[in-house]
Amino acid sequence: MTLGDPDSRNGGRAAAAMAVLAGLALACTVAPLMADGSVIRRHDADPVVAALLDGRGSLSFALLAGLLGAALGLGWAIAASALGQRAERRMMDAANRLLALPLILLVPLAAGLAGGGVGLLAATVAAATAPAVAALAHAELRALMRREFLTAARAAGLSEGTILRRHLIPNARRPLLAAGALALPRALAAESFASLLGLGLPAPVGSWGGSVGLAARLGDGLALAPPALLLAVALWGLCAFAEGLRR
Amino acid sequence: MISRPVPPPVETNALTLLSGDRVLIDRATLAVGAGEVLAVTGGAGAGKSLLLRALAGLPLPGIDQTGSARVDGRRLLIAQGGMLAPRRPLTMQAAEIVGHHLGLDTSASLRRMADALDRLGVPAAARRFDLPPDRLPDGLRWTALFALALAVGPAVLLADAPGAGLDPTVRLRLLHRLADWARGNAVALILAGRPEDGVAGPASRVLALRRGRLLPAPPPLPSPVLVPRTGGTGAPLLSGRGVSVSFALGRTAKGAERRLTAVHETDIDLAEGETVALLGETGSGKAMLARALAHLPAPSGGRVSWMGRDLAAADATGMRRVRRDLQILFPDPAASLDPVQTVGAQLAGILESLRPDIPADRRARRIADALEEAGLRAEIAPRWPATLSAVEAARVGLARALLPEPRALVCDEPAATLSAGERAMFRDDLLGLRDRRRLALLLATEQAGEGLRHADRGLVLLMGRVVESAGAGALLHGARHPLTRAMLAAARGEAPQLDGEAPSALAAPDGCPLRPRCPNARSFCSQAVPALEEIAPGHHVACHYWDTP
After folding, report:
1. How many CB atoms are located within 10 Å of the residue B379 CB?
2. How far does A199 lie from chain B, in Å, by closest CA?
3. What ipTM is given for this predicted complex?
4. DSSP B195
5. Over the stretch A44-100, which tens digit does the pLDDT of each residue have?
6. Is A149's CB within 8 Å of B296's CB?
7. Which residues of A touch B400 (CB under 8 A)?
8. Is the Cβ pair A162, B320 closer than 8 Å?
9. How far apart are alpha carbons B448 and B455 in whole angstroms?
10. Both B199 and B256 in a single domain?
11. What CATH number does the domain containing B400 carry?
12. What range does the domain containing B434 cover?
């Protein structure tokens, strides 16, 4: 039942992913201490330290936009489930239609048209990740609503409010968390993609995607490898974490 | 002329299968002659599949084999689950398999396959060869699989859990046809399955696998003499009038509402202390009706009343009073427990809701009593549902139903998840409880024989309509409706006189829904749905030709 469930391989992977992510976040946080305490200028620094410095921007943005996207998607799914059959069908049709579009292109497009800004970027990334979260969360909620133990609770004469409080919410917590966690790797990928094109996080904030893009333009293989590698590790970690929560 | 004895095509001598040090099959000795049908029964994990695989020459990796096993001639194994490649059209698979075994070209292979389908009684119209197997109804998929085996024409056919998951009526019909073919063509046929699967019915000899030993099966216990039960007196506790269940399917292009009707207007009564069996095949609506009577959820039409009070008009408090007296047993007891609460916490919540008269400090005592009554120890209360075995889950379900001290139980295929032995014990306990506490039982089940033996009355459902209702004895010995007769024949292991599978509720035939399968069908049957008429006191039948033998 817990994250470190020994009998489930997925649980073990989620724990490993959590450890990797925690290590990555810690390394990014203490990276300024590694840069000799002097003024941090990324292009002078050791490429690994520079990539770790970039990680602060990428990871914190992914967290911000991912949480926003998760909240939006979960709100969408819960509203759809609560509003009755017709609204539910309309809202989830919309989510599934949006899911088929390459929404990730929206991020550099909005940044290019409206000219950058962390707020705008976070909003578009959240909007781009929300439909996937909504679709998954809604599927989980629907499956939960059909479970037999809810019928058993009704047979015990419990009121709908009590069933919601005592059975529905405790059972929905984990699948909804897992659906929400799906937004984190998506947000990181969307931001990195936009930054790669030079339309992502604004200049003072470093980002892995931006560094990869810059190094590729300069043809500097040594500078390209660390951010690309860290980005890959972070994406794997976030995906494995979300998967592990789903079990 | 000296007739030399022909050695039987299947013969094993002290066949032993080992996995490391564990003996899985211990010195199995059997011989199956040509044209003989042998049934091998055993519970889950008894080693039936292992034995069959060893005979088919397909032992599982890691299994050591000692002793001798000799199988002569072409052998064919129908593996558990009856798998065909799910997405390739049946035609291609048939051509490939038959062609591979017999070296025939495509058209000759398909001709053989068509002949085999004829022998199994599949009408030409139902042969949907170009569909992939996963688009076929289950019964037709199994028939196609058997037809493939027939088309190949092996000398030895091994069938592992044949027709598992099909309705008993459909399964027994198919098994009998397969057995008839084997006898007619001198094929040695081995049918393996659980005792409750009815593989013993068409077989001439039955061996049972128990604890690794293969021994002659004990003769079936003589069915207990029917003791007329004295229950079922007085005014009905639970009564349904015109109860119907239907679902909205959206709208047609013209804006008319489409509905799928699972249960048509049905009247049903359950008196104090009475046991009523609700029989029917899969999809007949018996579970829907049972649940509608318990208002889980409320029926779409008609009226259900408990001791004369209309349930639809009851407020929350009144409904709780009724639920206290009317409890339900679910078909999958493990799924009916909340996975994130311990057993004890769930039972306490129910007690708090349904029996507010029991003070909080006495609840633990009542829970322990109910668990004990259901055959469990009170130590089970702090456990999580995921740690319960199937038997324990079923008994927790029973304890939960007994907790508020009800007067009636609605049982929807109770203990369907248990194996035969466990189920028999569970059923005996349930019946014991019924007699001790004078419980009224509504028993929805597809096991006609078993259901009726313990009931006072039976109702047979077909596509949401009652087609026969009578006292249990009258139904057991004098059933008039072809469906009831088929279900009882299947329960006895005989071949039911019905063809094919129950049609889908979405494409119900005109007139009598049994018409396409019925041996007595005439042209008039397609014109009107037969109405329920009384043919003897208390015996109702809905069939145009019930008096035709």
Report:
1. 9
2. 46
3. 0.80
4. G
5. 667 888 888 888 899 999 999 999 999 999 999 999 998 888 899 999 999 999 999
6. no
7. 152, 156
8. no
9. 11
10. no
11. 3.40.50.300
12. 236-475
